[in-house]
């Protein structure tokens, strides 16, 4: 069997394995999506805390691109501006003072009902409020914000589809289709599970055999292992350069002055000391306000165990640069997809890299929007 045939067999086996293990919505009408209450609670709490901490960057991260904001639809930017107007220079403070009820609707929208207690101008009042959430690549974004008093006064009625009632609390199935079981459906389910398990074992064994045969043929065809190492290095360098170009295009030249773009040049292990420092340097300029900063670009096809791992040697080099130059350093991390079009994008301050390594959610940025420097928060967002 030649190499092309081995790859074809492996692809077919792995595709069948995925069909068995993971439901595919377009193919399986009985597939179920799930929601995670822990993530939902974290988003709601972050939204609430952002009011008290006046963290406008957090609002920008939790709001969806379009938000049903107190009965009207606005862009994310307009909602953040509304929060800026409300919170700047005021004594506004709010707390969620009740348990939160989570409801799931056939439209896929998740509604979180709770009571919030608000203090403004030294007066305190409670409101029966709610947030609407939508799922976005495994995370949740706020797509609606209002309270029952505002809705009633404006005679507004939510259109979310049919509510779905489920006994489960931590994992709630969505879009569940009603079905009827025959009296012997339990036996059928058991036999189906056994058959599926046997088929999975056969497919895994076949895939391992195909991989073994491919590796044997590859090892026979590689005459010089050094050539293979060089090719891998070149591929990684091309990926790094492509992702750096993607990041460069996230900065608007009208506001960001491009200072330096370092290249990883070396010959026979000899390289300049600048190779150890961050890839990009910028100065943000706007109405007399200037802030220099540097960006280190990292692209990963995936994150093992969902965590970012960087060598301590690299981190020490970036810290050394930050301390010597007296400018902040950020790590721009692309994950999945292609370097020139990653599936997810994170922007992490170097000083927060340790806690960010195991909790990346708070540093996620849109892959479609440009970066900007928030003067009030004094940081890149």
Largest sheet: 8 strands, mixed
The overall average pLDDT, rounded, is: 82
SS-based class: alpha+beta
Low-confidence stretches: 23-32, 167-183, 225-230
The number of strands is 18
What is the molecular shape? flat
CATH topology of the largest domain: Trna Endonuclease, Chain: A, domain 1
Can you walk me through this structure?
The chain is of the alpha+beta class and 381 residues long. The chain folds into 3 domains: 53 residues; 142 residues, Nuclear Transport Factor 2, Chain: A (Roll), CATH 3.10.450; 151 residues, Trna Endonuclease, Chain: A, domain 1 (3-Layer(aba) Sandwich). It is built from 9 helices and 18 strands. Strands 2, 3, 4, 5, 6, 7, 8 and 9 form an 8-stranded mixed sheet that branches. A 6-stranded mixed sheet has the order 11-12-13-14-15-16, with helices on both faces. It has a two-stranded antiparallel ribbon with strand order 1-10. Helix 1 packs antiparallel against helix 6 and helix 2 packs antiparallel against helix 3. It is flat.
Task: Provide a concise account of the structure shown.
The chain has 3 domains: 3-27 and 190-217; 33-174, Nuclear Transport Factor 2, Chain: A; 230-380, Trna Endonuclease, Chain: A, domain 1 (3-Layer(aba) Sandwich), CATH 3.40.1350.
List the helices and strands and how they pair.
Blueprint: H1 3-21, E1 33-36, H2 37-53, H3 56-62, E2 63-69, E3 72-75, H4 76-87, E4 93-96, E5 101-105, E6 110-120, E7 123-136, E8 139-147, H5 148-153, E9 163-164, E10 171-174, H6 185-221, H7 225-248, E11 256-261, E12 280-286, E13 289-300, H8 312-325, E14 329-338, E15 341-349, H9 353-356, E16 364-365, E17 373-374, E18 379-380
Parallel strand pairs: 2-8, 13-14
Antiparallel strand pairs: 1-10, 2-3, 4-6, 5-6, 5-9, 6-7, 7-8, 11-12, 12-13, 14-15, 15-16, 17-18
